[in-house]
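chain below, 357 aa
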Amino acid sequence: MRIAVLCHVRQPIAQPFAGGMESQCWHLAAGLQARGHDVVLFASGDSDPRFTIDAVIPTHYDRTFPGAEHRGFAPLIAHLDDSYAAACDRIAAGGFDVLHNNSLHRFPLEPARTARVPTVTSLHVPPYDALRWFVHASIAPTHRLTATSAHHLAAWWPDGPPREASVLHNGIDLQAWPFVPEGDGSAVWFGRMTPDKAPHLAVQAARIAGVPLTLFGPIEDRDYWDADVVPLLGGSIRYGGHLDAAAVAFEIGRASAFVFTPCWDEPFGLVAIEAMACGLPVAAFDRGALREVIGETGCFAPPGDVSALARAITTAIQRPRAPQRDRVAKAFTRDRWLDRCEDLYRDVVGRDQGPSA
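prediction:
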C-alpha cells in the first residue's frame, strides 16, 4: 500500500526521541517500510533522513516558537494551520491508499478530507477541549480512530465508543530492549522533564527508600528543571542525560526497578513497557492506563503519595524480572502493533490489500 504517515511537528521524528509520539511515529514508518509498503513521512523537515519526508514545516516548531505549545500563541496557530492545510492537500493529491494521522491537528479529521483519502487517526493524548469536538464530529465510513488503551478510549467516549473507534496498544521492538537477568540494586526514571511527568517525586521517593536513582530524558521545561529537580540532584541521585534508544536501553537494563510518576492520566505509558522488556519491575503512581498496561507485575502507589511510592520501589526491586519481559512479549510487541495497523488500513480502505509497491 502507499501510506502517508502524518505527524505532530513540535519535535522532529528522529533520535533521540523527545517523547512517545515521536518514537511511535518513527517506528510506524520504519516498520511499515520494512513490510514492503511505500511510506511517505509528513513531518518536520529536520526529521530522520532515512525516510522519504514531505515536510509539513521546514523545522520543528519548538525551535522556531520555543515555549509556545500551550499558550494559544496566534502566530504559531496560524503557522500550523497553513502548514497542515497544505500537507493535507498534498496527501489528497498524492495517490495514497491510506493516511495514518498522528498529528493532533483538526484539519485531517474533517469528513470532507477523510472522504478523499481513507484515514486512521491515532489519538495519543487525553481528550482536551481544542480537539474533542473535532474528533467526535469526524466519525465517517472512511475514518477509523484509535486510542492507546481501554482507559484512554473510555476517556474520549465516556458513553461508549462508536464502531469506528477502537484500542490500538502501542508496541515495541523487543530486540531494541534486551532482557537483562539481574539488576544492580538501583532504580531508574526515564521521560520528559516536565511537571506532569514529575521526576522530582521519583527523586523524593528514591531518597526515602534509600535507593540510588538515575534520571534520563530531555529537559523540556527548563524552569521546572532548574527550580524543582536540580536542587535534588547529588549523591546517589544523578541525571544521565538524553540518550538515543540503544544507549538508554543499556542504562535501563542495568537497574533493578523502574519508577514512573505521572501527574496526569497517562493514556498508555510507553516507557513502562520499554523498561519491562529489559526485565525491570515498575513502581508507579496508579493513574490513567498504567495498571491496565503494567498489570499485576507492577507495584502501585496512590497518585502523588511519595511515601507509598518509596515502599513500592523497595518491593519492586525484590520482584522477579522474567514476568515483566513475558508480559511485553505477549501483548505489546511491534509486530503485533503493526499487524493491527494493517488490519485497520484494510478495514478503512474497504478492500483486501497486502503490501505492494
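The chain is about 40% helix and 15% strand. The chain has two domains: 2-171+333-349, 174-330.
thats it, cya
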